[in-house]
Amino acid sequence: MANYQNLLVAIDPNQDDQPALRRAVYIVQRNGGKIKAFLPIYDLSYEMTTLLSPEERNAMQKGVIGQQVAWIKQQAHYYLESGIDIEIKVVWNNRAYEAIIQEVMTGNHDLLLKMAHQHSRLESMIFTPLDWHLLRKCPCPVWMVKDQVWPENGSAVVAVNLSNEEPYHNELNLKLVRETQDLANRIVKGPLIHLVSAYPAAPLNIVTEIPSFDPNVYNQALRGQHLIAMKALRQKFHVDEQQTHVHEGVPEKVIPEICDKLNAGVVVLGILGRTGLSAALLGNTAEHVIDRLKCDLLAIKPDGFVCPVKIDEE
């Protein structure tokens, strides 16, 4: 259930405005809960100052941390004065994504929010290496926030995989729709929920190598399979047929186009969290999709996901 009560906001140290903190406050005001504003910082020059003793270096680090805490308090002063429960925590760590994920785990946070930078001309979101680490490895849902107000009459779009290539897709589809409906009821208060799925066209090599192969028959059969699967999914959650979309094409093109058409405020999709050789061989389809989005993104892992980051015992 999307009853997010313990939110962690990854503060952007290069921004005076913090859209992710603003979105977290929006959620808490409607759903209750608490917020922790978290910032890992590191400056190599402090570690290379060999003339200083360890005690002096620690004192300098604490001074920098204190300055950052004061800066975050200034950024959040309006929310704090209005009674929003915000804890501020700054740590010294040279691996930001590990520090954030470890904080998620040790603090039992159920939602991580972070700002996603946007391209000035295309208005699409740009994801940094830190963003990708968090999207792939964070055990709780990750809400990537675009610096814009929620669109008027904005919708929530759920990207589902109806290919039936792997059995885990079915369970993940159910989880995505269930979480989005709960999110809409608790937080967003009433936008239409749309389900979208893409299916591939007939491969060109088959068309050219097998003269008797009819791509139209193939495409119609594949579309029919997806429509049947979409009908079963929407009926399970009482979603109107007009709020379902099955289109031919690659997901990275179809899903962003549908989101634009529907004036989406957020798109919810599943991320399997593949890393290393698995990611290189199988790819991360969701990552190709979200590179082209122009709205907020809520990325959710499947049940049973094992986080590769371990808690630092120190």
CATH T-level fold name of the largest domain: Rossmann fold
SS strand fraction? 15-25%
Q: How far apart are the termini?
A: 33 Å
Overall pLDDT score: 84
Q: What is Rg?
A: 22 Å
Describe the structure.
With 314 residues, this protein is of the alpha/beta class. It has two domains: 6-146, Rossmann fold, CATH 3.40.50; 155-300, Rossmann fold, CATH 3.40.50. It is 44% helix and 20% strand. It contains twelve helices and twelve strands. Helix 7 links the parallel strand 8 and strand 9. It is elongated and about 80 Å long. The model is unreliable at 276-283 (pLDDT under 50).
Which keywords apply here?
10-stranded mixed β-sheet; alpha/beta; 12 strands; Rossmann fold; about 325 residues; UspA; cytoplasm; 12 helices
Q: Helices and strands in order, then pairings?
A:
Blueprint: E1 6-10, H1 19-31, E2 34-41, H2 44-47, H3 54-75, H4 77-81, E3 86-92, H5 96-106, E4 111-115, E5 117-118, E6 125-126, H6 129-137, E7 142-145, E8 155-159, H7 168-188, E9 193-199, H8 204-209, H9 215-236, E10 244-248, H10 251-261, E11 264-270, H11 276-282, H12 285-290, E12 296-300
Parallel strand pairs: 1-2, 1-4, 2-3, 4-7, 8-9, 8-11, 9-10, 11-12
Antiparallel strand pairs: 5-6, 7-12
Helix pairs in contact: 5-6
Short description:
Required for resistance to DNA-damaging agents. The protein has 314 residues and is an alpha/beta fold.
